[in-house]
Design a protein that fits this description.
The complex is a heterodimer of chains A (105) and B (315). Chain A has 105 residues and is of the alpha+beta class. Helices cover 30% and strands 33% of the residues of chain A. The radius of gyration of chain A is 13 Å and the shape is globular. A 7-stranded mixed beta sheet of chain B has the order 1-2-3-4-5-6-7, with helices on both faces. Chain B starts with 12 loop residues before the first helix and ends in an 8-residue tail after the last helix. Classes of the chains: A alpha+beta (105), B alpha/beta (315).
Chain lengths: 105, 315
Amino acid sequence: METLSYRHKVQGYAAGSKSTVIIGVVASGNLEVLVERVLSDTECQVDINTAAEGFGAVWEAVVADFVERRSPGGLKFSINDGGARPDTVALRLAQAVRLIEEDEP
Amino acid sequence: MSIPKFETPDMSHVAIGKSVSWYEASARQRVRLLLDAGSFEEFIGPEHREISPHLRLFDLPAQFDDGIVVGRGRIASAPVFLAAQEGRFMGGAFGEVHGAKLVGLLRAARDIKSIPLLILFDTGGVRLQEANAGELAVAEIMRALVEARIAGVKVIGLIGGRAGCYGGGGLIAGCCSALAVSEQGRIGVSGPEVIETNRGVEEFDSKDRALVWRTMGGKHRRLLGGADAFVDDTIASFRNIALQLIGSAPGFGVDVLKAEQARLEERLRRFGDCADAVDIWRSEGVSDAEAVPALAAQQFIALADKARRPRDDAR
């Protein structure tokens, strides 16, 4: 297992009022993303626990791209990863932000 | 990998459930669409991070909910407790935390007495990495389930997931007040690969998928009487049958246990010499037994209702 953590300063903050959402499942080639609205509006953090060691540079690039596209200020992302490919990671992160920005039913 | 379906304003919650496959859905999607919209309240949710203490010893990734979602909600406005296993995480297997969450839920139902409990099984059995802790969890769940039933709680098992319901899951299912199964939901204790490994390929060829489905699949379990109801593979079908079984499931007492014992003895007497599931269906009065595996859900439900009463006042 490898543990990674990235913290970014962001311009905009995530919309919506939900405090927590979760998406995905930990399985081969898949991952879960837990999102919590616990940071200040100008901060974003992504903590990763991954079964695939040695891919720090890829994670850093995927996370940086995600933060730039979505500007998810105020959100802390916690990831348990079963060895997902970068495109799956990007998809799950996008789903997670979309979920937490949706209105409560 | 599943793509979540996003609601559009003109589509009601229940209508979405009609178009979503139970087999394909995640545990959380099943919970959300089985219950009344927005009524689910999770106990020990993923944000509490009650993860397995064992998996890290094997360098394996944990999941924040340890593969089971437990909580309470409403179904057709009536309160229910509910536990849903995620079959894609470690095969939905019972680990220490996973099991403890279900035990706690069953004990809460036992103490409250009047609220039924649904178990959405999706499991291969005990999580091998957690060995004794997983076996103990299964034993504790069975005890808690029986105590809940003695207190008057109806415990309904819903089975139709990828992992089926095997190992300790099969034992726990056998303790429930009633079971509903879809074609994809398999029920057993030893799974196909386990039987083949222990008894040889002549005894059971786990690669013969047709053999696996007709020996352990939902249609056979319904015809044999092991499952009380057979349903189509949609979340709406499981919601309807859950409501129905909450109403019709028997209580728990010496009479029910005696009737169950008599039913099992009769099953052994009648079918003990059958070499294949098809022989059992034929002796149950299904004239075109070979055609059963290919029947659509509604055709099969009509056939099964004619061939066999759902329950012999037992279980």
